[in-house]
Amino acid sequence: MSSTSQIENRIILPKWGILGAGAMGWLWTYYLQRAKIDTLLLQRQNTSYRECIIQKDNLFENCRTSATKSDNPSLPTLEALIIATKAYSVRSALLPLQEALISKQIPIILLQNGLGVFEEVRKLFSEQPILILSTSNGAYWHEYEFLKLTGTGPSYLGTLDNSVPRSLINILFKRLRATGLPVLLTDNILKQLWEKLLVNCSINSLSTLWLCRNGDLLDNPNSKQIWKRIVHEGVQMMRLELCQEVEPLEILTLIDQVAYKTSANYSSMCEDRRRNRPNEVDYIQGYLVRKAHQHHLSVPTLETLAELLKFPENSLLKQTPN
Ligand code: PAF
Fold first, then answer.
1. Residues with CB under 6 A from ligand 1
2. Same domain, 20 and 91
3. What pTM, to 2 d.p., does this model score?
4. Which range marks the domain in which residue 238 is found?
5. How far, in Å, is the centroid of ligand 1 from the Cα of 75?
């Protein structure tokens, strides 16, 4: 039996859920645990715990977390649930959890690339606190054996509506900061999302079509030309959507910086191609094209990329490079 002092001294750890056991899901599981935050991984397998080897710099660490099946509707109370699935899976992954999340009012934190996911999730949860964590932390699976953590750019936390009380934002922000990652709070998350959208559109499109690492794009004069066209078309929309001036050169510099910092990575879309999985074209290039049409803007480069990246079913790769 525990004595009173033991009970008083016991530190109650907050528990965070992570939905999706891909590279991003494991990256945040690892960093939250380092901040002494208890984690529950919601994943496809029916196991009560999961392990993963993480490589950071030249060190290898074993990361172990409790786990449950992602469609398990009887969730424990969680301080927050990070959604780390691909953009196109978010809705179907959340549906089985909808009732539990609503009844416990568990805050949802979205990590996805691209735009449009927030609106889809808001339709499922009319009053839930929904936050966005726009992150440029890189991670990739090394030959399916371990997860290699790469570039640590800033991650921005914010909301797209008034669903989250400031006191709650502050608590969640404090926890994320405790990971040691450069997490910043922003009142203009939409700007971060648009910047990331153009970075993703530029790097992911070309690396996927050319099946190359992000760094290979830096030495290629053709990529620079195409990035200029993407940014020229994208910035017109950004200005209208954000109602503020946007400098194309700033976005081009950002694209270079991200490609440089993640030189060794295959972009997420390129990984999808290499593994013959569906990709996020509808949330990146496709989203941009739909927005441009709403604004009656002409975006020939983005339209062509969106069409090229919708791979036909008979285009499966037989062999993938290492
Ligand atoms: O999608 C990705 O791979 C990443 O978000 C990154 C590294 C920024 C490339 O666009």
1. 113, 136, 138, 199-200, 203-204, 214, 258, 262, 265, 267-268
2. yes
3. 0.92
4. 191-315
5. 31
